[in-house]
């Protein structure tokens, strides 16, 4: 299993909206960055990810799971853009902020810390475990 981080502005798509979609999940549409798209193309069913509220809050608030493989993004006719479908698994007991990540030496190489603009990014096994502990799970 691989681990990822999905960023969303909560006023555009929030954790609560993700949870409300239930087991059918939601397409992670609108990604227009080749690197982020390629990450989605590499995802497998059952991969887990952190759900990150960007701009407002700047915090990891929950865990999601890939429930649909990369397919054409339904919000565009441009064949270059794909998306996966993700479903909410569980909230973190405590949100983990960007500042928390930057302050933790174990996370110094995390993509979120070094390239906060990338909307879909990989997370290492060690980073996953650290964030889960920080988040109370």
From TrEMBL:
Domain of life per record: Bacteria
Signal peptide: none
Pfam families, sorted: EVE (PF01878)
InterPro entries: 5hmC_binding, EVE_domain, PUA-like_sf, THYN1-like_EVE
EVE domain residues: 2-134
Protein name: EVE domain-containing protein
Originating species: Cereibacter changlensis JA139
